[in-house]
Protein backbone atom coordinates (compact mmCIF):
# COMPACT_ATOMS: atom_id res chain seq x y z
CA UNK A 1 0.00 0.00 0.00
CA UNK A 2 1.07 3.58 -0.65
CA UNK A 3 1.48 6.08 2.16
CA UNK A 4 -0.56 8.56 0.12
CA UNK A 5 -3.89 9.36 1.71
CA UNK A 6 -6.34 12.16 1.09
CA UNK A 7 -7.72 14.22 3.97
CA UNK A 8 -11.46 13.98 4.50
CA UNK A 9 -14.22 16.58 4.41
CA UNK A 10 -17.18 16.36 6.81
CA UNK A 11 -20.63 16.05 5.25
CA UNK A 12 -23.94 17.41 6.54
CA UNK A 13 -25.45 14.05 7.42
CA UNK A 14 -22.52 12.88 9.54
CA UNK A 15 -20.30 11.02 7.11
CA UNK A 16 -16.98 12.24 5.72
CA UNK A 17 -15.64 12.04 2.18
CA UNK A 18 -12.02 11.83 1.02
CA UNK A 19 -10.99 15.07 -0.71
CA UNK A 20 -9.49 13.20 -3.65
CA UNK A 21 -10.88 10.09 -5.28
CA UNK A 22 -10.85 7.92 -8.36
CA UNK A 23 -13.25 8.38 -11.28
CA UNK A 24 -14.11 5.42 -13.48
CA UNK A 25 -15.84 6.75 -16.62
CA UNK A 26 -15.56 5.48 -19.38
CA UNK A 27 -13.87 2.26 -18.22
CA UNK A 28 -15.66 -1.03 -18.83
CA UNK A 29 -15.99 -3.69 -16.11
CA UNK A 30 -12.64 -5.36 -16.81
CA UNK A 31 -10.75 -2.08 -17.09
CA UNK A 32 -12.44 -0.72 -13.97
CA UNK A 33 -11.59 -3.80 -11.90
CA UNK A 34 -7.91 -3.53 -12.81
CA UNK A 35 -7.71 0.24 -12.35
CA UNK A 36 -9.62 0.26 -9.05
CA UNK A 37 -7.38 -2.45 -7.60
CA UNK A 38 -4.33 -0.39 -8.60
CA UNK A 39 -5.91 2.76 -7.19
CA UNK A 40 -6.58 1.14 -3.81
CA UNK A 41 -2.94 0.10 -3.66
CA UNK A 42 -1.89 3.66 -4.56
CA UNK A 43 -3.86 5.03 -1.61
CA UNK A 44 -7.25 6.04 -3.03
CA UNK A 45 -10.24 5.47 -0.79
CA UNK A 46 -13.01 7.29 -2.71
CA UNK A 47 -14.35 5.59 -5.84
CA UNK A 48 -16.92 7.09 -8.19
CA UNK A 49 -19.09 5.16 -10.62
CA UNK A 50 -22.64 5.35 -12.00
CA UNK A 51 -25.41 3.23 -13.41
CA UNK A 52 -24.83 4.94 -16.75
CA UNK A 53 -21.13 4.01 -16.84
CA UNK A 54 -21.99 0.30 -16.95
CA UNK A 55 -19.01 -0.59 -14.75
CA UNK A 56 -20.39 -0.89 -11.21
CA UNK A 57 -19.69 -4.62 -11.16
CA UNK A 58 -16.10 -3.97 -12.20
CA UNK A 59 -15.61 -1.34 -9.51
CA UNK A 60 -16.88 -3.76 -6.88
CA UNK A 61 -14.62 -6.50 -8.22
CA UNK A 62 -11.60 -4.19 -8.03
CA UNK A 63 -12.37 -3.40 -4.39
CA UNK A 64 -12.62 -7.10 -3.56
CA UNK A 65 -9.42 -7.98 -5.43
CA UNK A 66 -7.52 -5.33 -3.50
CA UNK A 67 -8.32 -7.02 -0.18
CA UNK A 68 -9.19 -3.73 1.52
CA UNK A 69 -11.93 -3.72 4.15
CA UNK A 70 -15.28 -2.45 2.91
CA UNK A 71 -15.39 0.09 5.72
CA UNK A 72 -12.15 1.69 4.53
CA UNK A 73 -13.50 2.75 1.14
CA UNK A 74 -16.09 5.37 0.20
CA UNK A 75 -18.23 4.21 -2.74
CA UNK A 76 -20.26 6.69 -4.79
CA UNK A 77 -22.67 5.86 -7.58
CA UNK A 78 -25.42 7.66 -9.48
CA UNK A 79 -28.76 6.69 -11.01
CA UNK A 80 -30.67 7.66 -14.16
CA UNK A 81 -33.99 9.44 -14.69
CA UNK A 82 -35.82 6.12 -15.07
CA UNK A 83 -35.70 5.85 -11.26
CA UNK A 84 -36.89 9.38 -10.44
CA UNK A 85 -39.46 8.54 -7.79
CA UNK A 86 -39.30 7.64 -4.13
CA UNK A 87 -39.71 3.93 -4.82
CA UNK A 88 -37.48 4.22 -7.87
CA UNK A 89 -34.59 5.56 -5.81
CA UNK A 90 -34.82 2.46 -3.64
CA UNK A 91 -34.81 0.21 -6.70
CA UNK A 92 -31.79 2.09 -8.05
CA UNK A 93 -30.01 1.52 -4.74
CA UNK A 94 -30.84 -2.19 -4.81
CA UNK A 95 -29.61 -2.51 -8.41
CA UNK A 96 -26.34 -0.70 -7.73
CA UNK A 97 -25.62 -2.39 -4.41
CA UNK A 98 -26.11 -5.79 -6.05
CA UNK A 99 -23.71 -4.95 -8.88
CA UNK A 100 -21.15 -3.45 -6.51
CA UNK A 101 -21.50 -6.43 -4.18
CA UNK A 102 -22.12 -4.33 -1.06
CA UNK A 103 -24.92 -4.00 1.45
CA UNK A 104 -24.67 -0.22 1.78
CA UNK A 105 -23.48 2.63 -0.45
CA UNK A 106 -21.60 5.58 0.98
CA UNK A 107 -23.04 8.20 -1.38
CA UNK A 108 -25.87 7.86 -3.90
CA UNK A 109 -26.48 10.72 -6.34
CA UNK A 110 -29.25 11.71 -8.71
CA UNK A 111 -27.12 11.85 -11.87
CA UNK A 112 -29.04 14.64 -13.68
CA UNK A 113 -32.06 16.68 -12.56
CA UNK A 114 -34.07 16.16 -15.78
CA UNK A 115 -36.45 19.01 -14.84
CA UNK A 116 -38.63 18.39 -17.89
CA UNK A 117 -39.62 15.11 -16.24
CA UNK A 118 -40.00 16.98 -12.92
CA UNK A 119 -39.58 14.01 -10.60
CA UNK A 120 -36.20 14.75 -9.02
CA UNK A 121 -37.78 16.04 -5.79
CA UNK A 122 -39.57 12.71 -5.30
CA UNK A 123 -36.34 10.87 -6.12
CA UNK A 124 -34.51 12.84 -3.44
CA UNK A 125 -37.24 11.98 -0.93
CA UNK A 126 -36.41 8.37 -1.71
CA UNK A 127 -32.76 9.06 -0.96
CA UNK A 128 -33.63 10.53 2.43
CA UNK A 129 -35.55 7.35 3.28
CA UNK A 130 -32.53 5.24 2.31
CA UNK A 131 -30.32 7.46 4.45
CA UNK A 132 -32.62 7.03 7.43
CA UNK A 133 -32.62 3.22 7.22
CA UNK A 134 -28.84 2.98 6.91
CA UNK A 135 -28.70 1.86 3.27
CA UNK A 136 -26.79 5.06 2.49
CA UNK A 137 -24.27 7.10 4.48
CA UNK A 138 -24.75 10.28 2.43
CA UNK A 139 -27.05 11.59 -0.30
CA UNK A 140 -26.56 14.01 -3.12
CA UNK A 141 -27.02 15.31 -6.60
CA UNK A 142 -25.02 15.71 -9.78
CA UNK A 143 -25.23 18.48 -12.39
CA UNK A 144 -27.85 20.40 -10.39
CA UNK A 145 -28.10 24.18 -10.78
CA UNK A 146 -29.05 26.51 -7.89
CA UNK A 147 -32.72 26.58 -8.89
CA UNK A 148 -32.84 22.75 -8.89
CA UNK A 149 -31.20 22.66 -5.46
CA UNK A 150 -33.60 25.32 -4.20
CA UNK A 151 -36.51 23.01 -4.97
CA UNK A 152 -35.00 20.50 -2.54
CA UNK A 153 -34.24 23.15 0.07
CA UNK A 154 -37.85 24.33 -0.11
CA UNK A 155 -38.87 20.81 0.93
CA UNK A 156 -36.45 20.85 3.88
CA UNK A 157 -33.92 18.57 2.16
CA UNK A 158 -30.23 19.35 1.66
CA UNK A 159 -27.77 17.23 -0.36
CA UNK A 160 -24.44 16.36 1.19
CA UNK A 161 -22.75 16.80 -2.20
CA UNK A 162 -23.44 18.28 -5.63
CA UNK A 163 -21.07 16.82 -8.22
CA UNK A 164 -20.47 19.19 -11.14
CA UNK A 165 -18.10 19.71 -14.05
CA UNK A 166 -15.40 21.97 -12.64
CA UNK A 167 -11.78 22.83 -13.48
CA UNK A 168 -9.71 26.02 -13.83
CA UNK A 169 -11.35 26.71 -17.20
CA UNK A 170 -14.81 26.20 -15.66
CA UNK A 171 -14.61 27.59 -12.12
CA UNK A 172 -18.43 27.81 -11.55
CA UNK A 173 -18.24 30.54 -8.85
CA UNK A 174 -21.98 31.23 -8.54
CA UNK A 175 -22.82 27.57 -8.05
CA UNK A 176 -19.97 27.05 -5.59
CA UNK A 177 -21.10 30.08 -3.59
CA UNK A 178 -24.61 28.63 -3.41
CA UNK A 179 -23.20 25.32 -2.19
CA UNK A 180 -21.06 26.99 0.45
CA UNK A 181 -24.00 29.03 1.75
CA UNK A 182 -26.03 25.85 2.31
CA UNK A 183 -23.27 23.53 3.53
CA UNK A 184 -23.20 21.44 0.35
CA UNK A 185 -19.80 20.02 -0.61
CA UNK A 186 -18.73 20.68 -4.20
CA UNK A 187 -17.33 17.64 -6.00
CA UNK A 188 -15.53 18.21 -9.31
CA UNK A 189 -16.03 15.79 -12.17
CA UNK A 190 -13.61 15.98 -15.09
CA UNK A 191 -11.33 17.93 -12.71
CA UNK A 192 -8.32 17.88 -15.05
CA UNK A 193 -10.18 19.74 -17.77
CA UNK A 194 -8.61 18.05 -20.79
CA UNK A 195 -5.43 18.47 -22.80
CA UNK A 196 -5.95 22.15 -23.62
CA UNK A 197 -5.79 23.00 -19.91
CA UNK A 198 -2.99 20.59 -19.07
CA UNK A 199 -0.85 22.03 -21.89
CA UNK A 200 -1.54 25.67 -20.98
CA UNK A 201 1.57 27.75 -20.33
CA UNK A 202 0.35 28.81 -16.87
CA UNK A 203 -0.08 25.21 -15.78
CA UNK A 204 3.20 24.10 -17.37
CA UNK A 205 5.15 26.88 -15.65
CA UNK A 206 3.86 25.82 -12.24
CA UNK A 207 4.56 22.16 -13.02
CA UNK A 208 8.16 23.09 -13.84
CA UNK A 209 8.50 25.22 -10.70
CA UNK A 210 7.30 22.50 -8.33
CA UNK A 211 8.65 19.48 -10.20
CA UNK A 212 5.14 18.08 -10.55
CA UNK A 213 2.98 17.03 -13.49
CA UNK A 214 0.42 19.46 -14.94
CA UNK A 215 -2.33 17.20 -13.60
CA UNK A 216 -0.88 17.40 -10.09
CA UNK A 217 -0.91 21.21 -10.29
CA UNK A 218 -4.56 21.25 -11.34
CA UNK A 219 -5.56 18.76 -8.63
CA UNK A 220 -3.77 20.88 -6.04
CA UNK A 221 -5.90 23.84 -7.21
CA UNK A 222 -9.03 21.85 -6.42
CA UNK A 223 -7.83 20.65 -3.02
CA UNK A 224 -6.78 24.07 -1.76
CA UNK A 225 -10.31 25.34 -2.35
CA UNK A 226 -11.98 22.57 -0.37
CA UNK A 227 -13.27 20.84 -3.48
CA UNK A 228 -13.47 17.05 -3.85
CA UNK A 229 -11.79 15.94 -7.09
CA UNK A 230 -12.20 12.58 -8.84
CA UNK A 231 -9.61 12.26 -11.63
CA UNK A 232 -9.71 9.17 -13.85
CA UNK A 233 -6.81 7.31 -15.38
CA UNK A 234 -6.19 3.73 -16.41
CA UNK A 235 -2.44 4.39 -16.54
CA UNK A 236 -0.72 2.93 -13.44
CA UNK A 237 1.87 5.72 -13.29
CA UNK A 238 -0.72 8.48 -13.54
CA UNK A 239 -2.91 6.74 -10.97
CA UNK A 240 0.00 7.01 -8.52
CA UNK A 241 0.93 10.56 -9.53
CA UNK A 242 -2.59 11.94 -9.20
CA UNK A 243 -2.85 11.10 -5.51
CA UNK A 244 0.67 12.34 -4.75
CA UNK A 245 -0.44 15.96 -4.33
CA UNK A 246 -0.15 16.55 -0.60
CA UNK A 247 3.52 17.46 -0.32
CA UNK A 248 3.39 20.99 -1.76
CA UNK A 249 1.17 24.06 -1.74
CA UNK A 250 0.41 26.65 -4.38
CA UNK A 251 0.77 30.30 -3.37
CA UNK A 252 -2.35 32.51 -3.37
CA UNK A 253 -1.24 34.36 -6.49
CA UNK A 254 -0.61 31.02 -8.24
CA UNK A 255 -4.11 29.86 -7.33
CA UNK A 256 -5.46 33.11 -8.76
CA UNK A 257 -3.48 32.67 -11.98
CA UNK A 258 -5.12 29.28 -12.49
CA UNK A 259 -8.60 30.56 -11.71
CA UNK A 260 -8.01 33.36 -14.23
CA UNK A 261 -8.07 30.70 -16.96
CA UNK A 262 -11.87 30.50 -16.57
CA UNK A 263 -13.73 30.66 -19.88
CA UNK A 264 -17.26 30.50 -18.47
CA UNK A 265 -19.93 27.82 -18.73
CA UNK A 266 -20.75 28.09 -22.43
CA UNK A 267 -19.48 24.64 -23.36
CA UNK A 268 -20.94 22.84 -20.33
CA UNK A 269 -24.01 20.67 -20.92
CA UNK A 270 -27.15 22.53 -19.86
CA UNK A 271 -28.80 20.35 -17.22
CA UNK A 272 -32.13 22.08 -17.84
CA UNK A 273 -32.08 20.56 -21.32
CA UNK A 274 -29.94 17.40 -21.20
CA UNK A 275 -29.40 14.42 -18.95
CA UNK A 276 -30.10 10.73 -18.62
Task: Output the keywords.
276 residues; alpha/beta; TIM Barrel; eight-stranded parallel beta sheet; two-stranded antiparallel ribbon; 11 helices; 10 strands; globular
The description of the largest β-sheet is: 8 strands, parallel
The ordered string of helix (H) and strand (E) elements is EEEHEHEHEHEHEHEHHHEHH
State the CATH class: Alpha Beta
Low-confidence stretches: none
Task: Give the name of the CATH architecture.
Answer: Alpha-Beta Barrel
How many structural domains are formed by the residues? Answer: 1
The CATH topology corresponds to TIM Barrel
Number of strands: 10
Integer average pLDDT: 97
Task: Summarize the entry for a quick read.
The chain is an alpha/beta fold.
Give the SSE layout:
Elements: E1 8-10, E2 16-18, E3 22-23, H1 29-42, E4 46-48, H2 56-66, E5 74-79, H3 86-100, E6 105-110, H4 120-132, E7 136-142, H5 146-154, E8 161-165, H6 173-182, E9 185-189, H7 195-198, H8 201-210, H9 214-223, E10 228-229, H10 236-243, H11 252-259
Parallel strand pairs: 3-4, 4-5, 5-6, 6-7, 7-8, 8-9, 9-10
Antiparallel strand pairs: 1-2
Helix pairs in contact: 1-2, 1-10, 2-3, 3-4, 8-9
Amino acid sequence: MSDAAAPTIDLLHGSSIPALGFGTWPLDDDEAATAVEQAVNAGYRLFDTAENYGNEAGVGEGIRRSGIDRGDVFLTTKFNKKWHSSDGARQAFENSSRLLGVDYIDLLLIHWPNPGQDRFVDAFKGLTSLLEDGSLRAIGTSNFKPHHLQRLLDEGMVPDVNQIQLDPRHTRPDLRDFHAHHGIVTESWSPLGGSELLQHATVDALADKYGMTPAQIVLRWHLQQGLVAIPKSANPLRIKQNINVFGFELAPEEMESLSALDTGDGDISDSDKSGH
